[in-house]
Design a protein that fits this description.
Layout: E1 2-9, H1 13-24, E2 29-32, H2 59-72, E3 76-78, E4 82-88, E5 91-96, E6 100-108, E7 112-114, E8 130-131, H3 134-137, E9 145-149, H4 153-162, E10 168-172, H5 182-190, E11 194-197, E12 200-207, E13 211-218, E14 223-228, E15 231-234, E16 238-240, E17 270-272, H6 284-304
Parallel strand pairs: 1-2, 1-6, 2-3, 6-17, 8-15, 9-10, 9-15, 10-11
Antiparallel strand pairs: 4-5, 5-6, 7-16, 12-13, 13-14
Helix pairs in contact: 1-2, 1-6, 4-5
Length: 310
């Protein structure tokens, strides 16, 4: 069984940032990733809001730079899914799809994923007009027509955000009233660029190379229509990738990991960082920030507890 100082689960921006700080701090560091290195950001064609970029990069290009930087300082990346984590005294045990490992500390950077509509065209046009992040992609739709799907706080707030760029924003909601807090609703009702389509669901996302329209069904009138749009933003919920952790660490009511200011969970030596953490903003820059704090905190925690690992 190979032992490391720190094992990081997930190779998105949070995991790669954590690996950079941990490895640069002299810790033997391994990252386990079951899928594509980079996570959800690799689906973003243009990253414009990451500090320090002289020109727009794709999400894939940005995480490739993060990956190279982490590897330069000695971090290892293993393409293995983690099946289980456990505790053995002061050590942490990691069972993967290929082998078993131990470490002094673990950083959980498993990320989250947007709840899907599960309609035809959604998967096909993801990254080509279908987005789950207005803050990431909104500026790409200047003077265009977009639709937002949902009726909760996130959907309405992001629809309002999109009115800064788009010439028209449709908010499509399956009910006859919004679920967002009243102050946010009031702002939506007062915004001339925002139109709400009630009692309506999306049946299909249509297009050619990119999104061109939505096929909608009104549940009250029982009629269908095609709505021409250049993009669609889906906000029907976000699901943290924390099924591995449910019996291990404290989660909030949404299933996100609860951490302190050092990204430490309720279990000694287990940290968390990125989109799977309970917080307000989920962006590549906040994921990288979480990872930096976690990587730094792990190094400090191991030094402070070195007597326990002899």
């Amino acid at each position: 069984m190979k032992n490391y100082d720190v094992a990081i689960i997930g190779a998105g921006p949070a995991g790669l940032s954590a690996a950079l700080y941990a490895a640069r701090g002299g810790l033997s560091t391994v990252i386990f990733e079951k899928g594509l290195v980079g996570g959800q950001i690799t689906l973003t064609n243009d990253v414009e809001n990451y500090p320090g970029l002289e020109k727009t990069l794709s999400g894939f290009e940005l995480v490739e730079r993060m990956k190279k930087q982490a590897l330069q300082f000695g971090a290892e990346i293993r393409e293995e899914g983690v099946k289980a984590i456990g505790l053995q005294g002061n050590c942490k045990l990691i069972e993967t799809t290929k082998d078993e490992y131990s470490s002094k500390a673990i950083i959980l950077a498993t990320g989250a994923h947007s709840r899907k509509l599960s309609v035809p065209g959604e998967e096909k046009y993801t990254g080509r007009g279908v987005s789950y992040c207005a803050t990431c992609d909104g500026a790409l739709y200047r003077n265009k027509i977009v639709a937002v799907i949902g009726g909760g706080d996130s959907a309405v707030e992001e629809a309002l955000f999109l009115t800064r760029f788009a010439k028209k924003v449709y908010l499509i909601h399956r009910r006859d009233q919004l679920r967002a807090v009243q102050t946010v609703q009031n702002r939506a009702f007062e915004n001339e660029k925002l139109e709400i389509i009630w009692d309506t669901v999306v049946q299909e996302i249509k297009g050619d190379k990119f999104v061109e329209g939505l096929e909608l069904y009104n549940k009250k009138s029982k009629t269908t229509m095609t709505l021409p749009v250049d993009g669609v933003f889906i906000y029907v919920g976000i699901i943290p990738n924390n099924s591995l952790l449910e019996s291990r660490v404290t989660l909030d009511k949404g299933g996100f990991v609860v951490v302190d200011q050092n990204m430490h969970t309720n279990i000694e030596g287990i940290f968390a960082a990125g989109d799977n953490v309970s917080k307000t903003l989920r962006q590549v820059v906040t994921a990288a920030s979480d990872g930096a704090i976690a990587g730094f905190s792990v190094e400090k925690w191991i030094v402070e507890n070195k007597e326990n690992f002899k």
